[in-house]
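#struct-pred

JT: dropping the chains for the assembly here, can someone run the whole complex?
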Amino acid sequence: MSDFWTSIGIVAAMAGVTALTRYAPFLFFGHGKEPAKWIVYLGKVLPPALMSVLIIYCLKDVNFLAGGHGIPEILCIAVAMGLHVWKSNVLLSLGVSTVLYMILVQTGVFVF
Amino acid sequence: MLKALRKSFKYSLPILFGYIPLGFAFGVMLQAAGYNAIWAFFMCVVIFSGTGQYLIVSMLAVGASIPSVLLTTFLLHFRYFFYGLSMIDRYHRIGGLKWYLIFGLTDETYAILSTEKPPEGITRQAFYAAVTFLNHCYWIIGGVLGALVGGILPFSTKGIEFVMTALFSILVVEQWKAHKNHLPALIGFVLPIISLVILGADNFLIPALLAVSVVLMCMKPILDKEGRLL
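RK: done, full complex below.
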């Protein structure tokens, strides 16, 4: 937990940039204007790249040499992805993989 | 307005079933990180982004630097720019409500508003506003509920933070399906691992984000061929 003003700063930074990305097209492009080609290009390639980056971000503190050895994480990511390829149901994929993960870490089955 | 809310409700139902549990998980994680329901309410109101708010919990927990929050949020939410772009014509000349509608343009709200037509008997702007507002309420209710009851649930919530990893995992799948070329996804996978190995868990994110952005820009001549790769 961060102190009060650090927390406010982090929340304000995220809220500000989030609003900016939403407002920018209306502020800068308006009716009938096209954005630059490189912006359109980044709009296509950034989303798939960023999702991969954020998976690594989620796994950054996992210790593959001790504790659960990353097995619950890798296994549950595989379950989430597999279920999503199969059923394409967001809540199902999230729910099953998260509950499975909670069971695995709470019972410590892979801690050896 | 009440009529608009009533008529728009059924269009927002899928979002109700999505946002309450997702918001709830956010609230539970947030209170586990030491923040109460007032914080949850405040964040759901001013940020209103699932991916962003899951991320912010881990950033608050370690007291992330403001530049890293700004950069990560900017790149993560770059997609909103394109939602907005495709809504410019739809949101043209609909009055002052437009500024709230743009603020509330989440992935899910976009998905409904860009595909559904307003039901009979209410105006286009009333429909847009009602759906956006209902979704915003669901998100706030989920978040506040999670923060309120997260600490008193009869079972341990240890491990619930995995919902963020799971969310990004399924987004990888959706992005994979949506694009023919998987090089951007692979670049986004490999470069952060290199950065993580070299710089360690606390410092790897900004260099990784910059490296991914620069490499993708440099690869524009290869990747950006009309109708071929993307």
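JT: nice. Residues 4-28 of chain A form the longest helix (25 residues). Residues 1-33 of chain A form one domain.
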